[in-house]
Give the backbone structure.
Amino acid sequence: STGEITMKIAVVTTTRSEYSLNRWVIKRILNDRDLELQLLVGGSHFASLYGKTYKEIEEDGVNNFYKIEFTLGSDSFQALSKSVGVASISVAQIFEYDKPDFLLINGDRYELFAFVMPALLFRIPIGHIGGGEITEGAIDDMVRHSITKCASLHFVSCEEYARNISLLGEEDWRIHIVGAEGIENIIKLKQYSLGELKKFLSLDLSKPTVLISYHPATAEINIGPEEQIDILLKALDQFKDLQLVFTAPGVEHGAEIFFKKVENYASKYPERVKFYKSLGGKLYLSVLKNVKCIIGNSSSGIIEAPFLKIPTINIGNRQRGRVKIKSVIDVGYDPQKIAELLKRILSDHSFVRAITSGKYPFGNGNVSNNIVNAIKENIYNKELLHKKLDFDVKDNEWHRYF
């Protein structure tokens, strides 16, 4: 060591989907001699139901991290609430004995409160990735906007989300437009070839295939998780030759019924329907790159698919309010409409070309660098923890990185 003080940056990861986004910022911190990484791994990474994804973290060469036990073996509201309490006890102990200088968190999942509340009490400044978005799905928005109010620096994917954060009363100098992290994965993870995919998935993706990435949408007022899945499967029933790849949702209410129904459906057509609990970032993107379209309500249909020029059939309200380009087509819970749209995408090539040719708003994939540079520039700022309400939008003060 050169005797200079290294700053300890804590990074939180609680789900495989968000780890695959955070991977590059984690590597970037690891490789920076001014910074020390403290990785806090919790949530579904240790749940065997979801494929133990902490192994993916170890494979990335990060073997020194704190394990924070979360899941209590059920998706009831009581179990989920208690798990946040249990986890915050572990987080408080870590902060007491190994306090970081900065906490970086990503997204809008309820379990992030287990990290945010201790950080506020310990006066650890928070950097939040993915604020300002509006999904109107379940409780995501309430969680996301409350984290915005707790954060000292905001890392957003595009202009519109920067504006939303400013309108929430955040000072404009705190806002950094860094682009969407999913793009960095596409650029930096070399995707598997069709031959490799055939070996891994026992599926030939040169034949017409569709990726289904669906989460039970708990905010749909009139339609429960079970009925949502039934409608999706009913639409897909009309395509007897189409290959289908299903991925599992996260740890959330309604996930168990999804598992049961899709496993059952896959066992009826084992040759052409596959269900994977955890594809992992690289495998997921490799599949996405080679399908005719993605169906569901996952944010990968909004961010990654359009970058790869893959059309998205976006079902229901989970992503309502997100910035969408024209390759993302919204549809309600109507099996006939879903099927008609899929037929058109599979058969009308000029339609697909037309919708996938728009300008891409979420940056160029240099996100981890942008985030780490912003943290380093601001970490000594005395104003970080002194937040003021400021409802004027001064967009000339935003930091733009692309």
Q: What stands out?
A: The first helix runs from residue 16 to 30. The longest strand covers residues 7-13. The radius of gyration is 21 Å. The chain has a mean pLDDT of 92.
